[in-house]
Design brief:
about 350 residues; alpha+beta; 60s Ribosomal Protein L30, Chain: A; Phosphoribosyl-aminoimidazole Synthetase, Chain A, domain 2; 2 domains; 6-stranded mixed β-sheet; ligase
């Protein structure tokens, strides 16, 4: 007699994973979350939106990319959950939306309950940091498609913003200040190039380069900084025109998305020094500067475009929230380009 487990799917292991993650997920709640006893759907009390004059719902979905391969190789599974949340909720924050709730999806070759619980626990902890509820998720076992130790994760979140408070390119003017919010490292973009450098250089995940105060593997798994609450605090303080989340495509390409067709951004490279991990990868990989610019964040994870008279206050607010920030440049009349 053939069973589902004979085909590689262990239902009992999945149930064990749910039990292990339950307490950690409970930390990622908001008052608006409504329990669904069946567990088939996540419920959120939409009456919370009645305080808005014209609420706009914002949604975003993303993954972590090939950074999960490094997590697998190192056997560290809780940090990529932070990466997932940061990639999703910080996209919502760009338009000024408050993240409300999130769901996750994990595909794996074999359900190892402790591993799944670590991944989801990291997602839940990051949701709590972002002020976002984790209302549900799915774990899928794909034997034959993925090796037993392989996995991938994705997530989606919904947020809300008042229509007349939505941020974006239409608010940007020449003469605005461009404020950089420091990244915690590489975040979650460019890891295919990182892995290429590891394969073709003398660097290994166990290496302890002089430039770093830990192993290269530990550095590469540094979780993505989550900016959502910091961005919302800046927006509430006033003077913010737009944000740009610096992800795939690098600083110039992502900032250009937040500019109108009549305004340019001029950035000053001398205003900051990229963290050592970027120089290390560039030197060992022989990566030309233009390729670095369009692949990595180079130490800038989020950018705020603010009114010139609000720049100093923005820097003070970010400092009070322990977010390193500095004036990166300014906007000028132009054609919607970013000059780095």
């Amino acid at each position: 007699m053939t069973s589902y487990q004979d085909a590689g799917v262990d239902i009992a292991a999945g149930e064990r994973a749910v039990e292990l993650m339950r307490a950690r997920v409970a930390r990622a709640r908001r008052p608006e979350v409504v329990d669904d006893a069946s567990g088939f759907a996540g419920l959120f009390d939409a009456s919370a939106l009645l305080r808005y004059r014209r609420p706009l719902l914002a949604t975003s979905t993303d993954g972590v990319g090939t950074k999960v391969d490094l997590a697998r190789r190192l056997g560290v599974y809780d940090t990529v959950g932070h990466d997932l949340v940061g990639m999703v909720v910080d996209d919502l924050a760009v338009c000024g939306a408050e993240p409300l709730f999130m769901t996750d999806y994990i595909a794996c070759g074999k359900v190892v309950p402790e591993r799944i619980a670590d991944i989801v626990g990291g997602i839940a902890e990051a949701c709590a940091l972002a002020g976002c509820a984790l209302v549900g998720g799915e774990t899928a076992e794909h034997p034959g498609l993925l090796e037993p130790d392989e996995f991938d994760i994705a997530g989606a979140a919904t947020g809300v913003v008042e229509a007349d408070e939505m941020l974006g390119p239409d608010r940007v003017r020449p003469g605005d200040a461009i404020v950089a919010l420091a990244s915690s490292g590489i975040h979650s973009n460019g890891y295919s190039l990182v892995r290429h450098v590891l394969r073709n250089s003398d660097l290994t995940l166990e290496s302890r380069p002089a430039e770093l105060d830990r192993t290269l593997g530990e550095e590469l798994l540094t979780p993505t900084r989550i900016y959502a609450r910091d961005c919302l605090a800046l927006a509430r303080a006033g003077g913010v025109r737009a944000f740009a989340h610096i992800t795939g495509g690098g600083l110039a390409a992502n900032l250009a998305r937040s500019l109108p067709a009549t305004v340019d951004a001029r950035l000053d490279r001398s205003s900051w020094t990229p963290p050592p991990i970027f120089t290390l990868l560039q030197e060992h990989g022989g990566i030309p500067q233009p390729e670095m610019d369009r692949t990595f964040n180079l130490g800038v994870g989020m950018v705020a475009v603010v009114a010139p008279d609000a720049a100093d206050a923005a820097l003070r607010l970010l400092a009070s929230r322990d977010v390193p920030a500095w004036i990166l440049g300014e906007t000028t009349e132009g054609t919607g380009a970013c000059h780095l």
